[in-house]
Design brief:
Largest sheet: 8 strands, mixed
CATH topology of the largest domain: FAD/NAD(P)-binding domain
CATH class of the largest domain: Alpha Beta
CATH superfamily of the largest domain: FAD/NAD(P)-binding domain
Shape: globular
Oligomer: single chain
Order of helices and strands: EHEHHEEEEHEEEEEHEEEEHHEEEHHHHH
Radius of gyration: 22 Å
Number of helices: 12
Number of domains: 3
C-alpha cells in the first residue's frame, strides 16, 4: 500500500499501530507531544504510567506476533514470567485460590520499561519516523474524509491514513465535527477508582511460594484492593486502592495502615520484608469511557481511532494494552481486505474493534456495577451475569479445571461462549455448591 500514514500518540496503542502500518505504507510518522525519554521512566502524557499495568496473556501473544521475540527481550530486561495459577496468589470471596498451573504465562514488567522496549523496536523500523515534542492541532480534509494533520509548529502533514492513538482525552470529536462528520455516541461509567503506588526493593523470599499477589474485594461490602507485582530492577510495585474510596493512601503511614487492613496478609508481608524506594504516588480514575464508532452511519475515509481513544477501561482489570494490541492487528486485517483507508475499511475496522472490546467491557462494567455507587448506562442482564460470574469464580476455587478455563477467558485467550456450554455450566453449579457448603462449615 503506497503513501504516508500518521499516528497521533506514541502510546502502546500508537506503537502497535505504527508497526502494523509499516508493513502496508511506504512511510509512517508517529507524533507525540511529550519528550520521549530514552530511559524507562514515567512521562507526562501517560499519567498512570508509574502505576501497575498488566499485559494479559492474549496481549503478550499479540505483541509477540507484531514484535517477534518480545517476551524473551522483556525477560532479559528484568521482567518476571509466571503462570497465572501457580505464580499469582489471588484472593477473593474470603479465601485464596490454591496454587495450580493453568498453562497461561504472564510477563510482569513496568509500563515505562515495556513502552521503552517496544518503542526502540518501532524506531528501528526503516519506514517509521518518531517525532516527539510536537502536538497535533487538527485534521485536514473535507466532507469525503481526512487527508492529514496540522501541527503546532505550523506544518501540515498529508497522509492517506491518520490513526488517533492520543488516548481518552482525544480531541477528534471536535476535529471531525469541523469537517462535517458526526461524533460517536459516548458511554461513561463512573467507577470512582483511585489507587496509590509505592516501589520496594525485591529480594528472594519476600513473597514465599508466589511470584505476585492480588487481593480483590467482594462487592458490594468490600471496596479495597491490593497487589504486589515484580518489575525490572529487582523491585516490587505495590498498589493499593479500590472503588469509590474517600481517599487512597497518600503517605507512608496511611499506606502501611491500608495494607494491614486487607483480609489476606500476603501483600503486607512484602512490606514487612522489603525496603521502600519511593513515596506513595496517587492516581484517580473517575470513569470508564467508550466511544461507539461502530454505530456511526457515516465515517470519514482516512481516519481511525485506536486504544483509549475508543475505549478507556477501569485500570484495575488490566485490559487496556491488550485490547489496543488486538485492535492494531484488526486494523491491519481491515486494510488488507480493502486495500486502502476507505470509509468502508473504517467501518469494518470499528466492527472488529467492537468485537475486541465487547468481552473485557462486559467483565469490567459488570464488576463495577457490583457497587451501588457506580453510575451510568447499566447493561442488560448485568445482575444475572454477575451472579453467574461469581458462581464460576467460587467454583474455580475448588476445581482447577474450571479455574483454567475461566482464566483463559479472562485473559482473552478463549471466547466467553465456553462458559455457557451446558456441560461447563453444570460443572460450575456442582463445584459452586461444594465451595458454598465448605464456607458454611
Amino acid at each position: 500500500m503506497d503513501g504516508h500514514a500518521v499516528v497521533i500518540g506514541a502510546s502502546m496503542a500508537g506503537l502497535g499501530a505504527a508497526k502494523v502500518l509499516a508493513d502496508r505504507y511506504e512511510r509512517v510518522t508517529v507524533l507525540d507531544r511529550d519528550e520521549l525519554p530514552a530511559e524507562a521512566v514515567p512521562r507526562r502524557g501517560v499519567p498512570q504510567g508509574a502505576h501497575a499495568h498488566a499485559l494479559l496473556v492474549s496481549g503478550l501473544q499479540t505483541l509477540s506476533r507484531l514484535f517477534p521475540g518480545l517476551p524473551e527481550q522483556l525477560l532479559a530486561e528484568g521482567g518476571s514470567r509466571f503462570d497465572t495459577g501457580a505464580g499469582l496468589a489471588l484472593y477473593r470471596y474470603g479465601r485464596r485460590w490454591p496454587a495450580a498451573p493453568t498453562g497461561l504465562e504472564m510477563v510482569s514488567i513496568s509500563r515505562p520499561k515495556l513502552e521503552t522496549v517496544v518503542r526502540a523496536r518501532v524506531v528501528a523500523e526503516p519506514r517509521i519516523t518518531v517525532r516527539d515534542r510536537v502536538a497535533v492541532t487538527g485534521l485536514t480534509g473535507d466532507r469525503d474524509g481526512v487527508t492529514g494533520v496540522t501541527l503546532d509548529t505550523g506544518e501540515t502533514l498529508t497522509a492517506g491514513l491518520v490513526v488517533d492513538a492520543s488516548g481518552r482525552g482525544s480531541r477528534s470529536d471536535r476535529w471531525l465535527g469541523g469537517l462535517g462528520f458526526p461524533a460517536p455516541e459516548p458511554v461513561e461509567i463512573k467507577v470512582g477508582v483511585a489507587y496509590s503506588t509505592r516501589l520496594y526493593r525485591r529480594r528472594p523470599g519476600d513473597l514465599p511460594g508466589w511470584s505476585a499477589a492480588f487481593i480483590l474485594p467482594t462487592a458490594p461490602d468490600e471496596t479495597r484492593a491490593a497487589l504486589a507485582v515484580p518489575i525490572e530492577g529487582d523491585r516490587w510495585l505495590v498498589g493499593l486502592g479500590g472503588w469509590h474510596l474517600d481517599a487512597p493512601p497518600a503517605d507512608a503511614a496511611s499506606f502501611e495502615a491500608f495494607v494491614r487492613d486487607m483480609p489476606d496478609p500476603l501483600v503486607a508481608g512484602v512490606l514487612d520484608r522489603a525496603e521502600p524506594l519511593t513515596e506513595p504516588l496517587v492516581h484517580r480514575f473517575p470513569s470508564s469511557r467508550r466511544r461507539r464508532f461502530e454505530r456511526l452511519d457515516r465515517r470519514p475515509a482516512g481516519y481511525v481511532a485506536i486504544g483509549d481513544a475508543i475505549c478507556s477501561f477501569n485500570p484495575i482489570y488490566g485490559q487496556g494494552m491488550t485490547c489496543a494490541a488486538q485492535e492494531a492487528e484488526a486494523l491491519g486485517t481491515a486494510l488488507d481486505r480493502h486495500g486502502s483507508a476507505s470509509a468502508a475499511m473504517a467501518r469494518d475496522y470499528y466492527r472488529a474493534a467492537a468485537e475486541v472490546i465487547v468481552t473485557p467491557w462486559r467483565f469490567a462494567v459488570g464488576g463495577d456495577f457490583g457497587y451501588p455507587q457506580t453510575t451510568g448506562p447499566r447493561p442488560r442482564g448485568v445482575r444475572l451475569n454477575n451472579w453467574y460470574a461469581r458462581r464460576i469464580a467460587l467454583a474455580s476455587q475448588v476445581d482447577t479445571g474450571i479455574n483454567a478455563v475461566f482464566q483463559s477467558v479472562q485473559h482473552l485467550v478463549t471466547p466467553p461462549s465456553v462458559l455457557m456450554r451446558p456441560r461447563f455450566a453444570i460443572r460450575v453449579m456442582r463445584a459452586g455448591r461444594r465451595r458454598l457448603s465448605a464456607a458454611r462449615r
